[in-house]
Amino acid sequence: MKWIPSPPGHVALFESAVAAFPKAERKKMFGYPCIFINGHLTAGLFQDRVMLRLSGEDRVRFLKERGHRVFEPMPGRPMKEYVEASGDQLADPQRLTTWLERSVSYVHSLKPKLKKPAKKRSGS
After folding, report:
1. What is the CATH number of the domain that holds 30?
2. How many structural domains are present in the chain?
3. Is 103 among the domain residues?
4. Inter-axis angle of helices 56-63 and 93-108, nearest 10
5. Can you say how many angstroms the Cα of residue 8 is from the centroid of all Cα atoms in its chain?
6. 61 CB contacts (<8 Å, ≥6 apart)?
7. What domain range is 93 assigned to?
8. Per-residue confidence of the chain (124 residues) as pLDDT tens digits?
9. Of the candidates 84, 4, 89, which has an alpha carbon nearest to the alpha carbon of residue 44?
10. Strand order of the sheet with strand 25-29?
11. What's the pTM value of the predicted model, to 2 decimals?
């Protein structure tokens, strides 16, 4: 399965929206721009869609909206606690910021993810 790049407009919208969260770490996941809080993937782009990690209550609310669904980067492989919407569904910057705020707030409530120790290289 070949993944497509995110449209430049979606990337610009996402980058503009995440600027409101300066403490979020910016990294790529699956080759797409994402933000991490305390080591946890919080939100990002995936192809032409936006994905968010939300609390159970917020996931229920989010999934009631047309075009929103559970995030599955590969068919049949849903990611626990993550949802997605087409970029068009979240093209409204205020709406995107509202859902990002909910995602960031939820992830801040989680224990920080511990960094794994570096693997020892064999043969050294």
Report:
1. 3.90.1150.30
2. 1
3. yes
4. 160
5. 17
6. none
7. 20-108
8. 688 999 999 999 999 999 999 999 999 988 899 999 999 999 999 999 999 999 999 999 999 998 899 999 988 999 999 999 987 777 788 889 999 999 999 999 999 988 777 777 766 5
9. 84
10. 25-29, 32-37, 40-46, 49-53, 82-86, 68-70
11. 0.87
